[in-house]
Amino acid sequence: METDYLKSSISINANVQHVWNFLSKITSLDWLEGQKSSKFLSKEKRGIGAMRLISFKDGSNVEECIVGWKPKKYFSYIAITGLPFDTYHATISMNQVSNVTKVTWESYFSSKQTRSEFIEFKKFLFNFYTLSLEKLKNQLE
Fold first, then answer.
1. Which of 71, 117, 128, 131 could potentially form a cystine with 113 if both were Cys, beta carbons 3.0 to 4.6 Å apart?
2. What pLDDT, in 10s, does the model give residues 29-81?
3. Do 72 and 52 touch, CB atoms closer than 8 A?
4. Minimal CA–CA distance to 130: which of 19, 4, 8, 6?
């Protein structure tokens, strides 16, 4: 079993309330690299238990469930289907210093993939986080 951890951050010239208002709309994902559409799979639209389905331009779909939620601080989610991992737990957090908000996207994951497949997907995922956070910054500034 392969396991690893990724972390990517970006500083955004916006206050934490503005960033939270944007990110807490968990199916408004125009900032997500390669995202085609997203929709709710649950009655809950915010907070723990909210579920979403994200469809990507490459034809893949990922189903996720919110498992942690603290307004203006973070939300955490797990992938239920759609990723080549046995476990995937991610957190998007934010911290304001002066008029800048640092947004951090970090995840822990494990898989029974071969070592080379695992390393390739980890590289893909890190690039996905980086490009998505850059798009987020461009939309919020």
1. 117
2. 999 999 999 999 999 999 999 999 999 999 999 999 999 999 999 999 999 99
3. no
4. 8
Beta bridge partners of 7: 106
CATH number listed for the domain at residues 2-140: 3.30.530.20
The count of other CB atoms within 10 Å of the CB of residue 109 is: 22
Nearest residue to 48 (alpha-carbon basis) of 67, 64, 63: 67
pLDDT digits 0-9 by tens, 15-40: 999 999 999 999 999 999 999 999 99
Query: Distance between terminal CA atoms of the chain?
Result: 41
3-class secondary structure, 127: helix
- Letter for the amino acid at 45? K
Give the Cα separation of 27 and 6 in Å (integer).
23
